[in-house]
Write a structure and sequence with these properties.
This protein is mostly helical. It has one domain (9-58). 73% of the residues lie in helices and 0% in strands. It has 2 helices and no strands. It has helices at residues 9-28, 36-58. The radius of gyration is 14 Å and the shape is elongated. The N and C termini lie close together (10 Å). The mean pLDDT is 91.
């Protein structure tokens, strides 16, 4: 998952700020219009994001 490059603290902070903003936006949305396949695809994407966050905590 890593590009292997060294990044500075500001880059990491900016990426986490963007992630926080995206999550805040998602929790405000109403998903009632989604079909079952769309809902399942959304859940799968959320699981991939969560897996990435877990990976960050153990790397």
């Amino acid at each position: 998952m890593s590009s292997g490059g060294v990044v500075d603290r500001e880059t990491v902070t900016a990426a986490l700020d963007a992630l926080d903003a995206a999550v805040d936006r998602l929790v405000e949305l109403n998903f009632d219009a989604l079909t079952t396949p769309e809902w399942l695809a959304l859940v799968e994407r959320c699981e991939r994001c969560a897996d990435g966050c877990r990976w960050l905590s153990i790397s």
